[in-house]
Amino acid sequence: MSSTPIESLIEIGKKVKDELALRTYPLGIKFCKGAECEKEFERVKARRPLKNFNARMPVCQLINISRTYGWVTAMSLEDAFCIAGARVIGLIDEIPEYLIEDIIRFHAKDREAGMAILKSVEAKSMPPGSVSGILISPLTRISFEPDVIVVYGTPTQIAKIAKAFTWHGILPETEFSGAAACANITKAYLTGKPQINIPCSGEVLLGRTEEDEISIAFSAKLAEHVISGLEGTRFIMPYPPPKYALYEPRVPSVYRMSYKDYEEWKKRKVSETRET
User: Tell me: the pLDDT tens digits for 33-47?
Assistant: First the structure.
């Protein structure tokens, strides 16, 4: 859990959203265990996929709903559409053999390549059956202590947050498996290292992450580094990036549009006038 007070996390969420002009809300995510889950879901009045939307959803879709609409949401196994994602966040004990075969079939050219993908995802996943549910809330109105913070934005916006961590000597990691991108959230929790996520096929097709978006996930314990890092890197990497254009444009020589072309034309006119 975070060592940062909830009130401070709320302020951090507001500052990050405002300073980077994010389209959607930064999120706090909590991995719930045992009997505490349902009590927490009720206490924070979280929206549930099956109960409130009459639909099961992959975790990436629920994350996108929370960050877009500003809703507090929650998920347990009965709410999950994507069983691979359910395994990643620790809701089930093992991946069914049929799912392994289909991941290999649809995501890789052969079994060897497919097993490499599965091995990568498994290494980033929560221990099997270790989680009973997850809570997701916009950081700007969070009422529980999150384990992980997730921020979506354009590559430049996310690079700015990553730069805030490097200001403190914390170097974010990036690993693209092509499937189960939600595993980057659990990896951030398990390793304590910020993870930059490029959306996988499922996150784009099912979760509906926009094509100009990436995200960064980091332990809530690192939240306070973000604001000081944003301030510390403001000179070397301001946002929005300046568009100085301190150079003279170049166009093909056959397109006579420049001042130089105009001056040459005037010289010719003067010369022609003198000749006549």
Answer: 998 899 999 999 999
Residue 198 confidence (pLDDT) above 70:
yes
d(CA 12, CA 48): 26
Q: Are strands 133-138 and 27-32 parallel, antiparallel or unpaired?
A: antiparallel
Q: Residue 38: CB partners within 8 Å, gap ≥ 6?
A: 133
Closest CA to 147 of 192, 85, 180: 192
| Distance of alpha carbon 63 from alpha carbon 29, whole angstroms | 9
What CA–CA distance (Å, rounded) separates 129 from 144?
Answer: 22
Q: What number is the average pLDDT over the span 84-97?
A: 94
Closest of 201, 182, 176, 204 to residue 106, by C-alpha: 201
Cα–Cα distance between 81 and 77 in angstroms, integer?
9
Closest alpha carbon to 66 in 84, 52, 85: 52
Sheet containing strand 148-153, strands side by side = 73-76, 133-138, 27-32, 148-153, 214-219, 195-197, 173-174
Q: Tokens at residue 37, please?
A: 């889950």
Is there a contact between 99 and 202 (Cβ–Cβ < 8 Å)? no
Contacts of 106-115 with C-beta under 8 Å, sequence gap 24+, read 107/178, 107/179, 107/201
